[in-house]
Amino acid sequence: MKKIWLFVVFVGLFTACQESLEDRCAREAQEFTKKNCPVKLDNTTTIDSMTFERATHTIHYYYRLTGVADNENTLQKIDAVGMLKSELKNATSLRVYKENKYRFAYTFHSEKDPKKVLVDVVFTDKDY
Q1: In which element (H, E) is residue 7 found?
Q2: What pTM, to 2 d.p., does this model score?
Q3: Residue 85 and residue 70: Cα distance in Å, rounded?
């Protein structure tokens, strides 16, 4: 998951001075997805895409889980939501978005059953 933040930082280095924060976020999400996705983050986690939802100012990450992580019970045992929240709180590369009270959504799908959502969580400024 930490690799995601590094990708976002590198994409952020190439932003234009004149573009709005919304435009920048939409462009970065699109570029990240085109250039990097899907990317395997570890043995069980692949990030499939990143999107930006303008209406709600939400940066949305979509993942696919395989192997032992492809199980709701496992995700509850390791407190996946708590881990995501902690990483978001500590992500300095997202500071500008957090300062502007953007929302961050994470959706984890099962590889065995792609329609099955294992985790779907949205964090607001009250969470980070």
Answers
A1: helix 2-12
A2: 0.84
A3: 20
